[in-house]
Amino acid sequence: MKMIETSRERQSTSRTLSLLLLCLSSTSQVSSQINHQSTLIRKLLRGYEAYPPPNRPTVVNLGIYINYFYAMSEQSMDYRLSFYMRQEWNDSRFEFDSKAFSNITKLKVDEATIKSLWIPDVFFRNEKGASFHKVTQNNRLLYIHDTGRVWYVSKISATFSCPMKLDKYPMDRQSCPIWFDSFGYLKDTIIFKWMESSVEFDPQGKNLPEMEIEDYKTFDCTRQAKSGYEPGEYPCLVVRFYATRPLGYFMIQFYIPSVLLVILSWVSFWISADAVVARVSIGLLTVLNLVTQSTGSRNQLPKVSYVKAIDVWMTACLVFAFASLIEFAVVNVWSRTEARQRKQHAATGSTTGATATQGRETTATKQVNLQVASQGNRGRRTRRLSDISEIIRQPLQSIHQRRAQTLDQISRRIFPFTFLVFNVIYWVVYTQG
What we know:
This protein has helices at about 1-45, 110-115, 250-265, 275-300, 310-335, 335-345, 350-375, 385-395, 400-430, and strands at about 60-75, 80-90, 105-110, 120-125, 125-130, 140-145, 150-160, 175-180, 190-200, 210-220, 235-245. The protein is α+β, with helices and mostly antiparallel strands. The radius of gyration is 44 Å and the shape is rod-shaped. The chain starts with a helix and ends with a helix.
């Protein structure tokens, strides 16, 4: 038993010693690799000058990786996003033999050394404001490969101007660019080109509250690049993001409520013309609500000089509601014409009124007697003259009242049909293209 325990102790001791030797060897390898990297950096920077570009011309490949689109603003006509700016170029001064330095093929440069290297002077032509991320450290890195290829990445948050055309708002499609220019080098010194993966998105980077990024396109705009401070052609690249606006919010907040208000204004066509308070209340309620909605829709947009799609819609709804109110005014005037005539007749003297009434009754009685006499051969029973006189006294419906009722009946069909035609034309025109 003692021999077995002794052998086990020897095995555990040998394992411990082997682990210690392995740790020491790996530590020595790491330290030697760090020493090789430090030596390599000092060697590469010996006699290095940062001012002249490494080649003439120097080809700089550009690309961006978008983290988030924060927002697009119609009021200020701009948009904000956070992205990684990728740059790649070749510098023959950084070529080295990887076998001489422990097979190091890629060298990461520290922050202090980055400041002493030549970096392309890329700037954003349509940038309103931008900043580098510095929490918790400066968010940028630079790699030097043994072939002389330099890879430089920095994280940036920026606000870019985006001239918008709002004539089809909210069915509009916006094109928002980012212009990449060289600030001080002409195209014979620096050439900008897009990387193979020129623009990439984070899976959640396209989510915006009111817009959807549906596509993008990249262009070379070198021929169009003109500096305002120095003549010449400067290298230039541009990427355009195409964004559409989902209609869900506008359907809930504007379109559906306005349609319901217009339909509510048509309810007055089925209400009697004598119910003045009810019909006026409905008309004023719909008009005031539509005016409030129209004002709210304009508050979200800049004061542009052209007509927008939302303006056409709200104006048309307001016209329909106001027209229904005018229709009631006409109906009310026609229905009250007979009442005014009755008051005027009642104001004429009682004698004249009584004489006229007796005359009408006598004439009517004679006509009835003739009708009764002509029907005597058929064996029908003669009605009492007093009952016939009572029927004749009942006022006949005036022509103005018939006109008012006819106008209400026509409006019940004309208003919905016209509004339906307007909807078809509106949605076809503004949703195409």
